[in-house]
């Protein structure tokens, strides 16, 4: 699949094809209208090789041997026996001898942030994130036969459980009350007595997929005859309307206070004598007036909501959360990362980029850069300098001068089409200096690539 | 006036009588409907003794001699010459020799927080604050003949300029633009060129009053033949509808997210591709849908606004800002501060309070205590332990147990009537233990006093 996807020219299309493959044969459209955020869905394939190559226990072993895996940071050792959930992380580096000892004694292994160690997982998540407009994360779970690693609980993310090896017995339960539907926080560990009867009980086999929305309680345990390896792909943490409003309301009020005297007018002189909890049982007409003034102001506040600016705040957070793109060979050859400049025979060769007005360029990925205004200046934020470890790097951006904003916007909106540097809408001089300066800057930051290797 | 006010039994009435005296002959009602927060008003009395006893330059001198007045903290030395505003505070204690030297050389003196040094100012402000439901503050300004101490500017408070001695030439200017009407912040110093023509120009003489709302630019200078001493009484800083909303909105959203799934639902999968500043020029029907969803949620948010709880937050801040009450002789004799218990002839005498079911009590002042709920527990906040220096003490409160809340509320709402301890609505045992325990607690904290000295 990933080899096929590398041939898909448009990163948005690539993302939606990958998601389609993940949930096939259910059509994406049906999935998002009927299942997403609504209910669990089980896809059984009778095809143990369907997700082959994504990740394996052999790869897990390689990572333990070759990479700096730290207990508590990259790896958790857990058990759940007789209703008791325990973590057994020793301090320090997780070495194979020790880790496999835990496993043999019946502990589950949870590999956190596997995209930092596995290029395939990195690739998959970095493609998928563009589909969700929200970070795509993952954990990998390896569970010995006849054991369970975790207590029943619910999470604050949308979960795709992808069974890679062996099998696992899953039970999924409805949210217990309305307040736990699409929750904002993950739950504590539950007792069996707390959670009622499962609405779904199944043995997931290699090649199968189980999806459930945040708030659905779940627990998985291994049958006596088989181990289980699965990866849980997650998304939509803190990506609700409430999260957007949280960004927007303080700004909305600030604008309202600035622009509208009604918001700056003093509270009624005597409001403390009829408002407040100690007066809430009073049947005072001034209370009604007070409430109706609040209502009037709230209505007005709606008109001051800086919706696009608040979306940009969310977008900036998302761009910071993003994995950097993992380049296809074609992308590599045509971007700064694959530029031919090299040390050869005692000489630096091919050092010039030679971008000219005829060079055709586009964004490296649809979502790899974004123009946001902070009220005064316009900045271009980009993901190409991010790290594979969550937030290891600061979010990168630079100020886009007024004469370049139209050109950058033009580039963003032209994707997936390549456009010539000469066609950038800058105030052109005869020799297109501005256009070439801008293209060189964007190319050097890895934000754009060219239609043909330079 | 203050001697008369001491005979007014109801602290709210006392407060409104004091304000009425301040702005007399304009009736309070007319003042608040036509002038307050709207426009300047000038009251000329031809009675230099009208405000006599409030404060004097002799008192200023006494304070410098007897109190620990610190430059920069309690006293500013300023000048405004040739359009240039300067502060001349040396470090350390402001001693008379030094201060009067500055004055003789043409500097203005501004005494900050004068209520900490003058009991009369303390008394006046502590009474007035109850009228405003917002802190009443003051500064005292002493200006030598023929000088000006401050550049033209506007403030973020409602200002009552009370001329105590001499005279001062005032010019008041309209807010320059709509955004500066009832402003949230004070202005920088202006140049004459910035401010246009005054709408009011007058020589204020002892006994006169000038009021202007926040946002009105003003400057005052002394005529060559007379010095000026005035006190500016201020109120309504950060006491607008916007300030209340600022407290309320985060809580409203938290409640909405907790109670309403609509707020927890995920943002549309692709919203980043059509929302945000870089897409704001797009004519996309999904943008309209997005805006209309925001509108729907904002409308719903209104219904989740915890108005009374937000008022309680403001009330708590106000109670913390409040000056402690300055007791009248009658109040002193009937409150814990005047309790007879004393050291006499090697013995502690009169040590018992003897509160019984027949004892008649009420709050010391209408606004001296307030019952607020923080969602889980109910607390009684009170001002009687505050200090005369702004926020020198923490806001005092204690938790009111469930069995006492009705009784405390009953007490608060009974003011100005005295009620017997036996009439407190507690679940009474035969010997009224609870009622007496509560009354003793409130008496000891200085929150209630008795109808007759104990």
UniProtKB/TrEMBL annotation, chains A, B:
Its EC number is 1.14.11.-. It comes from the Eukaryota. Its cofactor is Fe(2+). Residues 107-252 form the JmjC domain. Keywords: Chromatin regulator, Dioxygenase, Iron, Metal-binding, Nucleus, Oxidoreductase, Repressor, Transcription, Transcription regulation. GO terms for cellular component: nucleolus. It catalyses: N(6),N(6)-dimethyl-L-lysyl(36)-[histone H3] + 2 2-oxoglutarate + 2 O2 = L-lysyl(36)-[histone H3] + 2 formaldehyde + 2 succinate + 2 CO2; L-histidyl-[protein] + 2-oxoglutarate + O2 = (3S)-3-hydroxy-L-histidyl-[protein] + succinate + CO2; N(6)-methyl-L-lysyl-[protein] + 2-oxoglutarate + O2 = L-lysyl-[protein] + formaldehyde + succinate + CO2. It is found in: Nucleus. One of its GO terms (molecular function) is iron ion binding. Binds 1 Fe(2+) ion per subunit. Belongs to the ROX family. NO66 subfamily. Oxygenase that can act as both a histone lysine demethylase and a ribosomal histidine hydroxylase. This is Bifunctional lysine-specific demethylase and histidyl-hydroxylase. It comes from Tetraodon nigroviridis (Spotted green pufferfish).
């Amino acid at each position: 699949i990933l080899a096929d996807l590398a041939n898909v020219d448009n990163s948005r299309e690539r993302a939606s094809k990958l998601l389609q493959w993940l949930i096939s044969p259910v059509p994406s459209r049906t999935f998002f209208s009927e299942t997403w955020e609504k209910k669990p869905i089980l896809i059984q394939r009778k095809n143990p090789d369907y997700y082959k190559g994504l990740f394996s226990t052999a790869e897990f072993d390689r990572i333990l041997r070759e990479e700096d895996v730290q207990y508590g940071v990259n790896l958790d050792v857990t058990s759940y026996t007789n209703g008791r959930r325990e973590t057994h992380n020793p301090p320090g580096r997780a070495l194979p001898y020790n880790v496999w000892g835990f496993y043999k004694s019946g502990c589950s292994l949870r590999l956190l942030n596997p995209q930092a160690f596995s290029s395939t997982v990195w690739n998959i998540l970095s493609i998928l994130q563009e589909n969700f407009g929200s970070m795509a994360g993952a954990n990998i779970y390896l569970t010995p036969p006849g054991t369970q690693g975790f207590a029943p609980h619910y999470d604050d993310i949308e979960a795709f459980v992808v069974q890679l090896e062996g099998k696992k017995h899953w039970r999924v339960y409805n949210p217990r009350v309305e307040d736990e539907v699409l929750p904002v926080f993950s739950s504590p560990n539950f007792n069996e007595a707390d959670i009622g009867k499962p609405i779904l009980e199944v043995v997931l086999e290699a090649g199968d997929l189980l999806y459930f929305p945040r708030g659905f309680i779940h627990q998985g345990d291994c049958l006596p005859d088989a181990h289980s390896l699965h990866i849980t792909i997650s998304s939509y943490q803190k990506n609700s309307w409430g999260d957007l409003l949280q960004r927007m309301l303080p700004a909305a009020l600030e604008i309202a206070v600035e622009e509208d005297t009604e918001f700056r007018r003093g509270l009624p002189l005597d409001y403390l004598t009829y408002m407040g909890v100690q007066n809430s049982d009073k049947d005072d007409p001034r209370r009604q007036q007070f409430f109706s003034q609040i209502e009037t102001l709230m209505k007005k506040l709606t008109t001051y909501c800086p919706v696009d600016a608040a979306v940009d705040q969310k977008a900036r957070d998302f761009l910071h959360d993003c994995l950097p793109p993992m380049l296809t060979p074609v992308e590599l050859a045509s971007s700064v990362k694959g530029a031919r400049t090299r040390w050869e025979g005692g000489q630096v060769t091919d050092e010039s980029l030679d971008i000219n007005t005829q060079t055709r360029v586009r964004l490296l990925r649809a979502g790899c850069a974004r123009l946001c205004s902070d009220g005064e200046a316009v900045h271009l934020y980009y993901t190409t300098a991010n790290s594979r470890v969550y937030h290891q790097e600061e979010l990168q951006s630079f100020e886009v001068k007024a004469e370049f904003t139209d050109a950058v916007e033009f580039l963003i909106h032209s994707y997936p089409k390549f456009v010539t540097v000469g066609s950038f809408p800058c105030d052109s001089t005869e020799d297109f200096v501005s256009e070439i300066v801008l293209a060189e800057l964007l190319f050097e930051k890895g934000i754009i690539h060219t239609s043909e290797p330079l």
